[in-house]
């Protein structure tokens, strides 16, 4: 291995890594940060093309780090070894484990999802073993013999919630997640962390609400939106067939646009405090009711 | 109002508040911390007898703080006004809002829940307007015409998860939550915060697993435990009637004790990464399937 060593806190790379916590420098550079053993391992599994890998042995927690570093290098990542203090500066976690990678951002459009709703083949998900190319990280279109199952979230504010929602969509077997009118950058370090790497596998599109609705309608996908104002319970709605579940933001719920244009508003019954269900909890409840019905 | 003013970071009360973040001093003093406007308002609503209220106007975010302070004083709390820097020291939140209360801990036993499973009246929940006494904070036994619905969690490690689980139990209308073999103190400040005050309303008992099982059996409550190893899907199990849903810990899942002794193990189907569902997510999925079935 040819490894550059970094000890100075003034090193330009150290300064740049700190900057990449913020969106503008991230977008300007077209990259994002992946911190932590588990997340980097998942990124490698999903063939995310890591450009750089920064590591600091003094922070390692286990014994598998050298193998992971070798794997990253074999996949083309440039390596940098940092001193303990230099790594402490670049880490954004409270308890760093000595591993931080930089990878290129990607962008996927609604048209990239066409194959999903058309069920027109392509590498399967989950469990696909087909290598993804750089431009198609996590974009493998499911080889669907079944109706598409999509999650649409609107203007989610907290990165932790967006990450948790991605995990839920993954667990429920959603074919894609569409983030409308984003407030949170999907490449925010806390989305990466909270998603536990699902960001690298679930096909994810960021788009405005109007074209998303138009696209869903063109594909014949029904839209079911959850709102406390609905009459119908989510368990009384038919959640089979081509389906998009639409969730609003933490603070404002669904926008007028989705309330007016969705095919069916539904509500989740609430027994306790008005705010006992946050958006991540409401999402997983609705997704798994759909899973139940769709297994029939 | 007679208000003691505190500006010194060396003030013994300031030092004690910092200590109360840790369990041992908390248990020795028999009190716990409630930080934040929303949480303190909920504590007052649920008649938690606040002993002390510390506030720092320089941190206030809105205009309703004086009314809340007056309400706390009227309810018997001793008031202390802190300077900005003194409050920064006692606050455990990253972004304090200038309000921190101290309240006595309470303890509830399995026997306190007898009324719940017996359905023998008492103030109703939710929406009870009957004042609770000091010793009965949140203990109002539901006026059940229906079968008891209980959540049992085993050895949950993360305070944030325990708080989220309490919210879920509240939203699902559970009659009680039983924490077995606790690793996390229910009065940990992060449980208080993550529960958004549900800690003050849902009847909560901490006990060892063996007596919990014996008590549930004596009351004729069926135990359904979730584990990835189960054959039966949670949606195929009958979740009506007297029911306890049992959830294991984050890291180890359910113990042998519950796996062996529960009436029925069930599993949640998983489409994605093995760890996409954490214990809080698995709990809310199972609880709301029970809500669906029990509404029949």
Structural class of chain A: alpha/beta
SSE string of chain A, helix = H, strand = E?
Answer: EHHEHEHEHEHEHEHEHEEHEH
How far is the N terminus from the C terminus of chain A?
Answer: 54 Å
According to DSSP, the number of beta strands of chain A is 11
- Give the chain pair forming the largest contact, with residue counts: A-B, 33 and 33 residues
- Order of strands, widest sheet of chain A: 8-7-6-10-9-11
Low-confidence stretches of chain A: 120-144
Written description of the protein model:
- Chains A, B: Keywords: Methyltransferase, Transferase.
- Chains A, B: One of its GO terms (cellular component) is cytoplasm.
- Chains A, B: InterPro entries: Alpha/beta_knot_MTases, MRM3-like_sub_bind, Ribosomal_eL30-like_sf, rRNA_Methyltransferase, SpoU_MeTrfase, SpoU_subst-bd, tRNA_m1G_MTases_N.
- 2 copies of one chain form a homodimer.
- By secondary structure, chain A is α/β, with parallel strands linked by helices.
- Chain A folds into 2 domains: 101 residues, Ribosomal protein L30/S12 (60s Ribosomal Protein L30, Chain: A, 2-Layer Sandwich), CATH 3.30.1330.30; 185 residues, SPOUT methyltransferase, trefoil knot domain (Alpha/beta knot).
- Helix content of chain A is 33%, strand content 17%.
- The first copy, chain A, has 11 helices and 11 strands.
- In chain A, β7, α8 and β8 form a beta-alpha-beta unit.
- The N and C termini of chain A lie far apart (54 Å).
- About 8% of the residues of chain A have low confidence.
């Amino acid at each position: 291995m040819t490894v550059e060593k970094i000890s100075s806190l003034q090193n330009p790379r150290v300064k740049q890594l700190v900057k990449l916590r913020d969106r503008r420098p991230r977008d300007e550079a077209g990259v994002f940060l992946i911190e932590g053993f588990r997340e980097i391992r998942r990124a490698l599994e999903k063939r995310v093309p890591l450009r750089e890998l920064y590591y600091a042995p003094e922070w390692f927690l286990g014994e598998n780090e050298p193998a992971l570093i070798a794997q990253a290098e074999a996949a083309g990542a440039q390596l940098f070894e940092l001193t303990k203090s230099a790594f402490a500066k670049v880490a954004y976690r409270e308890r760093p484990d000595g591993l931080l990678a930089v990878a290129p951002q990607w962008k996927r459009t609604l048209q990239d999802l066409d194959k999903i709703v058309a069920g027109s083949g392509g590498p399967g998900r989950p469990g696909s073993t087909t290598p993804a190319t750089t431009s198609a990280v996590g974009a493998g279109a499911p080889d669907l013999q079944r109706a598409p199952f999509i999650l649409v979230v609107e203007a989610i504010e907290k990165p932790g919630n967006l990450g948790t929602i991605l995990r839920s969509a993954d667990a429920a077997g959603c074919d894609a997640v569409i983030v409308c009118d984003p407030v949170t950058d999907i490449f925010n370090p806390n989305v990466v962390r909270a998603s536990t790497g699902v960001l690298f596998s679930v096909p994810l599109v960021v788009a405005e609400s109007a074209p998303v609705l138009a696209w869903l309608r063109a594909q014949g996908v029904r839209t079911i939106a959850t709102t406390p104002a609905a009459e119908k319970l989510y368990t009384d709605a038919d959640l089979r067939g081509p389906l998009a579940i639409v969730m609003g933001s933490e603070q404002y719920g669904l926008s007028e646009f989705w309330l007016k244009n969705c095919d069916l508003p539904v509500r989740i019954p609430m027994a306790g405090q008005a705010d006992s269900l946050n958006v991540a909890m409401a999402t997983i409840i609705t997704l798994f009711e759909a899973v139940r019905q769709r297994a029939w």
